[in-house]
Amino acid sequence: MIDSKLLDDLAKRVAGSVPVGLQLLQEDLQKNLRSALEAGLSHMELVTREEFEIQRAVLLRTREKLEALEKQIAQLEEKIAQNG
């Protein structure tokens, strides 16, 4: 899930960039932007960096095992071809 502080900071920056005439509405705008960002991001299937790195490591190990098995199969096929 997205960090609440990050959402607050992003909403504050966007609300702070509105024209001077609208800055009276800045606090309300900031709250609405935060709610909209949170709602939009909640519909996405996001993972934390830690979860991503764990899955990346699992995939890397799986790929290494697959390559080792492919090499082993190639060697066995070569032996069969030589003996056959």
From TrEMBL:
Q: Which top-rank group of organisms is this from?
A: Bacteria
What InterPro entries is this protein classified in?
Answer: UbiK (IPR007475)
Q: Which GO terms describe its cellular component?
A: cytosol
Q: Coiled coil where?
A: 49-79
Under Pfam families, the record lists: BMFP (PF04380)
Record-level GO BP terms: ubiquinone biosynthetic process
Task: List keywords of the entry alphabetically.
Answer: Coiled coil, Cytoplasm, Ubiquinone biosynthesis
Q: Does the keyword Cell membrane apply?
A: no
Q: Which family does it belong to?
A: Belongs to the UbiK family.
Q: This protein is called what?
A: Ubiquinone biosynthesis accessory factor UbiK
Record the organism: Sedimenticola selenatireducens
Recite the lineage of the species. Answer: Bacteria, Pseudomonadati, Pseudomonadota, Gammaproteobacteria, Chromatiales
